Amino acid sequence: MKKKMSYWRSLKKIDADVQIPQPLRAKFFCLKGRCYNINPLYDARAMQCLSRAVKLNPSMVDSWNELGECYWKNMNVKEARASFEGALKQERNRLSLRCLSIILRQESGARRGKEATAVIQKSVELAKEAVSQDTKDGV
């Protein structure tokens, strides 16, 4: 445990703008944000790191997905949805598809009639696509 805390303290002391080469900064902030986001509770530091990672490299799908989960923890479903959609613009991947499917199902409760049905159908389509990419995901 002491060794892990030592690594964490070292990570916090790194000045990315000075010590991390430009091509690696987005990955650094993604990993640092992921470390903060491990906690089941929302952590604003995770949001800061992940937002910066996405700005530095908008094509990094892992950053978009982690940012979406961070927004979701903070109950900001609108931004979580936008983050997962941002990831899907870069690459169709099972994590973004699965999470976006869940968000759409949650949002369908606030809608009525044909609109709710359309949202649920879209959710099912996304879930099917996610499962088709990896049938063992979630098992």
Automatic annotation (TrEMBL):
Keywords in alphabetical order: TPR repeat
Organism lineage string: Eukaryota, Metazoa, Ecdysozoa, Arthropoda, Hexapoda
Species of origin: Pectinophora gossypiella (Cotton pink bollworm)
Protein's UniProt name: Uncharacterized protein
Gene3D superfamilies per UniProt: Tetratricopeptide repeat domain
Stored Pfam families: TPR_8
Matching SUPFAM superfamilies: TPR-like
Sequence ranges of the TPR repeats: 61-94
